[in-house]
Amino acid sequence: MPVQVRGELLGTRRVGSYHVLTITAPGVPEAARPGHFVALAVGGDNSAMLLRRAFSIHGVTLRGVYGGTVDIAVGVAGPGTQWLANLHRHDPIDVVGPLGRPFALPKQPVSALLVGGGYGAAPLFMLAEELRTRGCRVDVVLGAATEDRLFNVLDAKRMASTLTITTDDGSTGTRGRVTDVLPEIMSRTNTDVVYACGPMPMLAAVTELARSHGAHVQTAVEESMACGIGVCMTCVLPVIGDDGVTRMLRSCVDGPVFRGDRIRWDDLDTIPADCYGAPGSKA
Hints:
It is a single chain. By secondary structure, this protein is α/β, with parallel strands linked by helices. About 20% of the residues lie in helices and about 35% in strands. It has helices spanning about 30, 80-85, 125-135, 155-160, 180-190, 200-215; strands at about 5-15, 20-25, 35-40, 55-60, 70-75, 90-100, 110-115, 135-145, 160-165, 175, 195, 215-220, 235-240, 245-250, 255-260. It starts with a strand and ends in a 24-residue tail after the last strand.
């Protein structure tokens, strides 16, 4: 069960264009699993910014001088994330977490390919550690528009059997997108399962390539979450269930991790006519 706690900022470090915040959050690190996220209140006690901001958990420590901590990656995109980036050591932060459904982990050693776009790659680092403890081969592909928007390349090199970098502008690694290099890597490593985090168009393309290779695929979706606890319904997307019926599921509580082959990528931001409960449907 998630908890709401008043934590504090222990430190901030720059990773390329991003800020990685280390936050005390009693009860959250112990329950966190790869793919979980936290929702942070922003702006302070008297702020007009009422909605929390959701961030994937990048890493946790279970004990230390200040107890367990949670690391999150922040890309400044508006007043809420700017407020977080400007916090000072020991400033208070209201934290709710861990939230969502995490990645499903293999019961036997497999060849796993982890694909991350920008700082969407943040949750893959916890996942890689867990996979390695299970005897899995872990290969990583990180992509971004430019070199400074790649996330945590040095740590990725240390945790992966192989690391492949792509940038749209060719400033480092292979010029192009992550999907340009995936077919060769999946064939070379005989990939069994693909885990992907990043922008939705990237996730759709990665899913299609993984399916064509015959690999299982799990995607951590990036949908805007206003509440993070399943109340507001702003983060719904069409997902095919085990019974073959499409339902509008909430990314925050039914996800953010979904089987990529179950998401109707072409119907995002719509309610398909055949969706359960859609206007005019027979369901």
